[in-house]
Design goal:
seven-stranded mixed sheet; about 450 residues
């Protein structure tokens, strides 16, 4: 799920691209060398951005100690930004910060670019594979929040620049907390601080990607988990996301709503409330669901054929049901064959361990262990991360026979689960696509007279 949601997040960034006012010190500076002055005039008067960037870089190379070096770097940042070249924008911004460490525009673009790289570094577990970039973005962002208005900058221009910059700074700090430092509470606080800086209209566009991040943070297991808040912010994102993203967000919203409330009744009302305001009112409540044991009993009592339960529901009952319900279910499952669709967590020639439920996939831990009937050849051992599905759909399928199970009690950070062991496992390879046989064209007959 985390990988999917971060993919949605990255796709949504295009809705919220950074826009900063172009501000440059207008102090009068005299260039005494005529050749340097002519080179400066030539570079700064270019109208084509590619040519301008090349000319400005050439000026800096020719006159590395110029009195207008800072102003040229400032223009270079704007030029590369207009070209949509993040690497060169970051290079120019970094050089500008060497001369002017408190240049808010250079900090803003540096944070924005580094934060984008940080977001792209998220792996399947939801952690960053490039923590240094995430930390760098957060450190620069924290500095940016302390920068004061420079002399000569109007209050109106400063308000525009900080209005664009400060939400991005809070976002970078929050993302670093979330995926690098694993400080979930810190991430929640920073995302809320960011959203408070937006107007209601801005929260529906520029603030939407981090509304999703806030929902993710609140949904994560641990002491800071708050599913009521998570549901609100998922609903808020669903309300204003483009339709193609709604289809991916809705399953997460329904999952956590059902997990907390027990069903989907009342969810439409929550969506309507979340559309009206960024944050939930103090009076906002969602009725809690029955206990896991209540759910398990209801499923057992209301399912005519327990062998037709999906594997996620089967595991839930085995993990959470009272003894009578668990015994009733296991009595019909024991020694019965079943397909085991899911993600491979570990595999050898004799044993394949698979994450089947959503929670197991999120935690990257196996909940079904299949002992194979016949060891697999080395080349046929499935790769970690590969997926088993249904052979009838052309997918690779893993089958096994229910043998035993072990209940895994809930902890402070994880819900109760069951680890289910199957025997006599077999792997059915995916169907190979066949290419229709080519029929030769009929031979051309020549008629003789």
């Amino acid at each position: 799920m985390k990988k999917l949601v971060f993919a949605i997040l990255l796709a949504m960034v295009s809705i919220c691209a950074v826009t900063a006012p172009r501000m440059r010190a207008q102090a009068s500076i005299t260039i005494k060398d005529p050749a340097e002055f002519n080179s400066y005039q030539m570079a700064t008067s270019q109208t084509d951005p590619h040519t301008k960037a090349s000319q400005l870089e050439g000026f800096l190379t020719a006159y590395p100690q110029s009195v207008v070096k800072q102003a040229v770097l400032d223009m270079l940042v704007d030029t590369y930004q207009s070209l949509g070249d993040p690497a060169k924008t970051l290079s120019a911004a970094s050089r500008l910060l060497q001369m002017d460490p408190n240049n808010l525009k250079a900090i803003l673009y540096s944070v924005y670019i580094k934060n984008g790289s940080c977001a792209k570094s998220v792996d399947q577990s939801g952690a960053s594979t490039d923590k240094q970039t995430c930390d760098d973005a957060a450190t620069l962002a924290a500095k940016g929040l302390t920068v004061t208005k420079p002399a000569g900058t109007s209050a109106d221009d400063w308000k525009k620049l900080t209005g664009a910059a400060f939400p991005i700074f809070d976002s970078a700090i929050a993302l670093d907390d979330l995926i690098s430092k694993k400080d979930i509470k810190g991430a929640e606080d920073e995302y809320k601080a960011e959203l408070m800086l937006y107007t209601d209209d801005q929260s529906k566009s520029a603030g939407l990607q981090d509304t999703l991040q806030l929902a993710i943070a609140y949904s994560l297991p641990g002491t800071s988990q708050d599913l009521i808040q998570a549901i609100w912010f998922y609903a808020r994102v669903w309300d204003f996301a483009p339709p193609k993203f709604q289809a991916n967000i809705e399953p997460q919203l329904e999952r956590f709503y059902k997990k907390y409330h027990g069903g989907l009744d009342g969810l439409d009302a929550v969506k309507a409330q979340a559309a009206a305001t960024t944050f939930p009112p103090a009076t906002f409540v969602i009725a809690p669901a029955p206990t896991p044991a209540d759910f398990a009993h209801k499923a057992v009592a209301e399912t005519p054929d327990l062998t037709k339960l999906n594997l996620e529901d089967t595991e839930f009952i085995l993990a959470n049901g009272v003894k009578d319900d668990v015994d009733k279910l296991w009595a019909v499952l024991k020694d019965k064959p079943t397909p085991v669709p899911g993600k491979v967590i570990e595999a050898s020639a004799s044993v394949i361990k698979v994450a089947v439920t959503s929670d197991a996939k999120d935690a990257n831990t196996p909940d079904f262990i299949v002992n194979l009937k016949t060891p697999l050849p080395e080349k046929e051992i499935p790769a970690v991360g590969s997926i088993f599905g249904e052979h009838s759909k052309g997918e690779a399928e893993l089958d096994g026979t229910y043998d035993s199970y072990t209940q895994v009690p809930a902890t402070a950070t994880a819900t109760a689960t069951a680890q289910i062991v199957l025997r006599d496992g077999v792997v059915i390879p995916e169907k190979k696509k066949t290419t229709p046989a080519h029929k030769p064209s009929p031979a051309h007959k020549t008629t003789t007279h």
